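Consider the tokenized backbone below.
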């Protein structure tokens, strides 16, 4: 695929994991510029991440990235799409969902308070 794209773009082309590209960009021109050891978490549809060791991207097994979102942080936690239980990604998702519920609860309380104030 890189060769096909290279036929249209007059620059070197390579294909890499998105989180690896993100951490690479930060080391070249962003917040991690000048650092040789960097860990970056990316938050999107899930939790990803990239690692730079000794100035080089650590690509993990099979060039699939480091998959930091699938590090188990809660033993016997909730089931993750990767097959493990208690992954960082699942815990982050629960946190976001619970935050939304708490936010909604506060809104409901505020509305009740406003209603009482008007009465
Ligand atoms: Zn997982």
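A designed sequence for it:
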């Amino acid at each position: 695929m890189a060769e096909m794209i290279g036929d249209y773009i007059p620059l070197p082309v390579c294909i890499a994991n998105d989180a690896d590209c993100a951490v690479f960009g930060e080391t070249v021109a962003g917040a991690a510029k000048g650092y040789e050891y960097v860990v970056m978490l990316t938050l999107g549809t899930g939790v990803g991440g990239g690692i730079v060791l000794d100035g080089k991207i650590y690509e993990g097994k099979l060039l699939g990235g480091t998959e930091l979102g699938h590090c188990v942080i809660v033993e016997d936690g909730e089931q993750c799409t990767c097959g493990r239980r208690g992954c960082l990604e699942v815990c982050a998702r629960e946190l976001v969902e619970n935050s939304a519920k708490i936010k909604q609860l506060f809104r409901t309380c505020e509305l009740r308070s406003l209603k009482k104030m008007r009465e």
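The CA atoms of residues 94 and 100 lie 10 Å apart.
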